[in-house]
Specification:
mainly alpha, two-stranded antiparallel ribbon, 33 helices, 4 strands, 67% helix, globular
């Protein structure tokens, strides 16, 4: 592989990184490393990909290899620190963050994480020092106040913790997380009404975050509002049917109200996901016994007691079931064993040898990782480690400066083979154009319209590399076949080789000037190429460069995010617009061309032209939710507030939940 080729492969790998195709990007960087193992950058970029795949040890190792080759790549220290922090190597993370701080004394990301690491090390004075410094430099940074509040909460200084959470809310009352953190603190202090109010507000702002429903369920349960707690767990399961905490807690609540069969269904899901969750087995056994399924109850109890032979509650329960089955000897044997175990435990407790779980029982909760079967009837809360991650772990990834409310456009549409599934909107986007091309059977997979692209897995990436080779051979034999060029352009697009993809889409159009979908995807790929030219990888950005905290805390003059100007390449920009114009000329009913062209206009700050295109898309498809949402944002920009709010309400009705938080923000 030549020098030019290694640079090109590195560039394509970085394309894949930017568009979150991490598995694919690793394959590209592997190729470069194999040919030129002395280069530092491919190891660094591969480390980023591994980091976002949660391979923190792999990321750390690649960072070390990069620094071995170039010790002056200071940004690598920041990534390695983050990877070490996620592995619990706080001393190693601290050392790397200090190197990063020496090079960038005002770097927000580094100061935040120095605070976090010191909290995790229980070095509260050092944590306070760095967080104070952070807030001196960035006095309107809400995440900093939340962090410092969490630090004071860890120290037990609840007055200071409340003061910091209050300040975060004062700066940006449209951010859900400070309400949730303050609500938890109210809950721990058993101020249940205030806790409930904070969780209500957090859920109003961010109705898709499952953790707030789980925690509000705990508050409602503590207030003896079983119906309310149940509705919260129902909502979590509606959002994520495999949420084990919600399933377990709902199973317990259902058992308390006598809804035994449906409680069993919940515990079935828990056990299927966690085959060693013996507390779930025990609860299910009690429920099965209640409905007369003694065989099933015994099977569950036997599973529990094989693992926990000292659990006397289980032997008591099994004795009762055996008695009902007229197995009197077996019942007596279990009863005597249980009574002896209970007496032994009581003696140990009296002598100070046993664990008194009464204090935790009063709280009505246990941590998820706590497998003490004596706590079988307690609601589950997230482990402290998970709670810590919720408190301040989110600040250790990516663009911390963008953690404020995101007011971005709904994404543009593309013709592709893969689509990322939405949790709420199971809508299938249809076009006769796509259907007609699929019926020609010239492509290896079925095309679909999507505005949320899925990343390739390793097998899919290999399939497309192989397809490129095969199509190249076919094109050599049939060089005038536009469909073959379109097919190869699709493959190049999916493996993030945009230059080659653009060439093939152009060739398909040259051979077939009425190839509407080729024009459409050519415009999309050119737009992606422009975005790449205007943006750098998240870990290469200075966190101070893009401060979005001005979005919060402003009443009537709330600002929308600045737009990305597609003006670096005037020629490319004109090509993009001309492609969409051609699509509309060839097929005026292809609403996605109006929508995508509006996206380009919006990013050019030409909001009135964008509104016209969104309106045309809506006229042709009145159910186009994304167009309503984006037209609403465009109208906010030109101060047409009432019609903007109407659009947002319509988008919310159609399933774009984020519209409601924007409505709230823009009406207060």
């Amino acid at each position: 592989m030549s020098q030019i080729n290694t640079e090109r492969v590195t560039l394509i790998g970085r394309n894949a990184l930017y568009f979150e195709d991490y598995v694919l990007s690793i394959q590209y960087f592997n190729q470069v490393i194999k040919v030129k193992p002395f280069l530092a950058e491919p190891y660094y970029y591969r480390a980023i990909a591994k980091y976002y795949l949660d391979d923190f040890k792999g990321a750390e190792d690649d960072c070390t290899l990069a620094l071995d080759r170039n010790p002056f790549m200071t940004r690598v220290h920041q990534l390695r620190a983050d990877a070490r922090q996620n592995q619990g190597d706080y001393d190693g993370a601290l050392a790397d963050y200090l190197v990063s701080l020496d090079n960038s004394p005002n770097d927000k990301f580094t100061l935040v994480n120095l605070g976090v690491v010191n909290i995790q090390k229980k070095e509260y004075e050092d944590a306070e020092k760095y967080l104070n410094r952070l807030l001196e430099i960035y006095p309107k940074y809400t995440e900093g106040y939340m962090m410092r509040g969490a630090m004071y909460q860890e120290k037990g200084d609840t007055i200071q913790a409340f003061a910091n959470y209050d300040e975060a809310i004062k700066i940006d009352k449209y951010l859900s997380h400070p309400y949730a953190m303050r609500g938890l603190l109210h809950y721990y202090k058993q101020d249940l009404d205030k806790a409930l109010g904070d969780f209500d507000e957090a859920i109003r702002i961010d109705p898709l975050y499952e953790g707030n429903y789980i925690n509000r369920g705990l508050v409602r349960y503590s207030k003896n509002d079983l119906r309310g707690a149940m509705s919260d767990y129902d909502k979590v399961i509606e959002l994520d049917g495999n949420n084990i905490i919600a399933r377990f807690n709902r199973g317990l609540l259902r058992s308390q109200v006598g809804d035994d069969n449906r409680a069993i269904e919940d515990f079935d899901v828990v056990i299927q996901a966690e085959p060693k969750n013996y507390i779930a087995y025990y609860n299910r056994s009690l429920l099965k016994s209640n409905i007369g399924d003694y065989k099933g109850a015994l099977e569950d109890l036997n599973t529990v007691l094989a693992e926990y032979p000292e659990f006397y509650h289980g032997f008591m329960a099994r004795a009762e079931i055996k008695h009902r089955q007229n197995d009197l000897k077996g019942a007596e044997r279990d009863f005597n064993y249980a009574r002896n175990e209970e007496a032994r435990k009581n003696r140990e407790l009296a002598e100070g040898k046993g664990d008194d779980t009464d204090a935790e029982t009063k709280n009505k909760t246990r941590e998820k990782s706590d497998s003490d079967l004596d706590k079988f009837n307690l609601l589950v809360v997230a482990d402290k480690t998970v709670e810590e991650k919720n408190k301040y772990g989110s600040n250790t990834r990516g663009r911390i400066q963008n953690k404020q409310v995101d007011l971005a456009l709904e994404p543009r549409f593309i013709v592709t083979y893969y689509e990322k599934q939405s949790d709420l909107r199971g809508f299938v986007y249809y076009s006769p154009l796509v259907d007609a091309l699929n019926k020609k059977n010239v492509l290896t997979k079925k095309l679909r319209l999507a505005n949320k692209e899925a990343s390739l897995n390793e097998l899919q990436a290999e399939e497309h590399f192989t397809s490129i080779e095969n199509l190249s051979k076919e094109i050599a034999e049939r060089p005038n076949n536009a469909d073959l060029y379109f097919a190869r352009a699709m493959d190049y697009m999916l493996v993030q080789d945009f230059s080659s993809s653009i060439e093939d889409f152009k060739k398909a159009i040259e051979l077939n000037p009425k190839f509407t979908l080729a024009y459409f995807n050519l415009a999309v790929v050119c737009t992606k190429q422009l975005e790449l030219n205007e943006n750098v990888l998240e870990y290469e950005k200075k966190s101070e460069q893009t401060e979005l905290s001005n979005l919060g805390g402003v009443k009537k003059e709330t600002k929308l995010p600045s737009t990305v100007l597609l003006d670096h390449g005037k020629k490319e920009f004109e090509l993009i617009i001309n492609c969409y114009n051609k699509v509309i000329e060839l097929n005026p009913d292809f609403v996605y061309a109006y929508y995508n062209r509006a996206d380009v206009r919006y990013k050019q700050n030409d909001f009135r032209a964008a509104i016209l295109d969104y309106s045309e898309a809506i006229r042709r498809d009145p159910g186009f939710a994304e167009a309503y949402y984006n037209r609403g944002l465009s109208r906010f920009h030109i101060k047409d507030k009432n019609r903007a709010l109407d659009d947002m309400r319509k988008a919310g009705e159609m399933g774009i939940v984020g519209a409601y938080s924007i409505i709230k923000r823009m009406t207060e």
